[in-house]
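stage 2 :: seqdesign
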């Protein structure tokens, strides 16, 4: 080992070869070693991207619209800006609804052009709002978003919205002022929407209470039906979900969040803020759970049931689900044991998954990158993750490739953009955001996830695709693929 390498290995924060011209990146990459004091080694996070690095982050507007607001099933999403802001936050996330996927079919925009930027877009906005409601008379709810250009020219969106609500007393509109440049990543958009909603909309409606056990289920976005699956558990436990924030959720249910006795939080990064405010403003306690993985899911059910004193119901549900799904999970575990995985998503899925795939599938997570997690996310990730694993904040493409050479994963969970590059390297990729064949939450869902990993890692196509067809020697499948072939 060279002296330089020795020195590098001794250092918990790593400067990769590809980053030698932007040495500031060293503070964002941690290689965990046994006995490290992880508190002193956390990658810095939630800070502006360093010029010169090609970030994978999204913008603040995207965090509000694509991640939270756009999931609602009965709400027009009016994007006040150029058409690109609407197009790029439409159709890229898989969150179905039980009313025919209204939210995924349509996108609305004021389609700002140069003359609106020069002369102001308020009239255009009012006209677009009326047009949208006229076109869809059954829809009475809307969220209006500002974008970089309309924020810069100073359109008074709130005044327009107020006027429309006066003219149309049967509609309700919520305004999100969170232009792309207002934060360092999409994380800012989560925050703005959370705080705006609690301050302006929670407490403005009441719904019928049908159970003495009531919750808000927060930070679950029904990716490929996660919410549908988990709703079966709540129903079997006799728990009424007052609001889903926001998977398959409705605008008016979210106005009733104050009525719940407990806020159960899945994605603490995107929606922990509203849970905290519900506690502060309305005294609704917050309980964080993990909904992926057998151990975690069972623990989450136990915690919620303990809160309401219905432990027996919880134990019964867990026993039934284990009986049904554990044998299948164990079949996959047998075959996935020792496989190496990388996770490159937003942030929370790193700490949700690293330990659960290890416990339930025997998989080792060897590299993780978070686009917008904060330091508190890294605290959780590093605490649950393995030694010898890379923990990276806001990684860029070159770093991905360099780290791949070090850790050699069998499968990578990331988005389609990076996924396309990985495919070319003949490494199996699974959509870590929208899933391949989800849902992945809950007991049944985690079996789906294991099945996708099994199919990806045992499929001979990657091996075959890597062969040079001009080579006349006979192909020999590697041993790991022979069983499946
Ligand atoms: Fe929460 Fe999410 Fe995620 Fe997220 Fe996202 Fe996402 Fe994600 Mo993609 S709300 S933070 S902003 S769990 S869209 S459904 S998968 S990056 S780790």
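stage 2 :: out
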């Amino acid at each position: 080992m060279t002296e330089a390498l020795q020195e590098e290995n001794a250092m918990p924060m790593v400067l990769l070869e590809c980053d030698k011209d932007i040495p500031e990146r060293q503070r964002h990459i941690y290689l965990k070693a046994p006995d490290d004091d992880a508190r002193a080694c956390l990658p810095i996070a939630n800070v502006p991207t360093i010029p010169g690095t090609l970030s994978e982050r999204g913008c603040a507007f995207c965090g509000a619209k694509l991640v939270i607001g756009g999931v609602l099933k009965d709400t027009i999403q009016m994007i006040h800006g150029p058409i690109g802001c609407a197009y790029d936050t439409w159709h890229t996330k898989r969150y179905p609804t039980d009313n025919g996927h209204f939210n995924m079919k349509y996108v609305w925009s004021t389609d700002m052009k140069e003359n609106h930027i020069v002369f102001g877009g308020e009239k255009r906005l009012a006209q677009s709002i009326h047009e949208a409601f006229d076109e869809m008379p059954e829809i009475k709810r809307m969220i209006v978003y500002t974008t970089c250009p309309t924020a810069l020219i100073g359109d008074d969106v709130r005044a327009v919205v107020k006027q429309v609500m006066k003219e149309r007393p049967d509609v309700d509109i919520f305004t999100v002022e969170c232009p792309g440049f207002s934060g360092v990543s999409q994380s800012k958009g989560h925050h703005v929407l959370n705080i705006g909603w609690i301050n302006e909309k929670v407490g403005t409606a009441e719904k019928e209470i049908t159970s003495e056990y009531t919750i808000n289920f927060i930070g679950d976005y029904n990716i490929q039906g996660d919410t549908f699956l988990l709703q079966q558990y709540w129903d079997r436990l006799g728990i009424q979900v007052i609001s889903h924030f926001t998977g398959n959720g409705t605008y008016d249910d979210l106005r009733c969040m104050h009525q719940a006795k407990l806020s159960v939080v899945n994605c603490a990064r995107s929606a922990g803020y509203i849970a905290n405010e519900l506690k502060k403003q309305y005294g609704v306690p917050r309980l964080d759970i993990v909904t992926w993985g057998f151990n975690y899911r069972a623990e989450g059910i136990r915690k919620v049931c303990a809160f309401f004193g219905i432990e027996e119901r919880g134990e019964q549900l867990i026993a039934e689900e284990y009986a049904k799904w554990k044998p299948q999970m164990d079949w996959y575990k047998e075959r996935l044991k020792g496989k190496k995985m990388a996770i490159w998503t937003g942030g929370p899925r790193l700490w949700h998954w690293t330990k659960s795939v290890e416990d339930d599938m025997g998989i080792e997570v060897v590299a993780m990158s978070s686009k917008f997690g904060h330091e508190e996310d890294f605290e959780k990730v590093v605490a649950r993750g393995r030694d010898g694993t890379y923990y990276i904040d806001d990684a860029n493409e070159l770093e991905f490739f360099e780290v791949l050479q070090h850790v050699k994963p069998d499968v990578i969970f990331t988005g389609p953009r990076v996924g396309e590059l990985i495919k070319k390297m003949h490494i199996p990729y699974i959509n870590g955001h929208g899933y391949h064949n989800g849902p992945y939450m809950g007991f049944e869902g985690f079996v789906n996830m294991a099945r996708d990993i099994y199919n990806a890692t045992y499929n001979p196509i990657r091996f075959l695709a890597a062969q040079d067809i001009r080579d006349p020697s006979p192909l020999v499948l590697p041993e790991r693929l022979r069983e499946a072939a």
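stage 3 :: structure notes
- The first strand starts at residue 29 and ends at 31.
- Residues 311-336 form the longest helix (26 residues).
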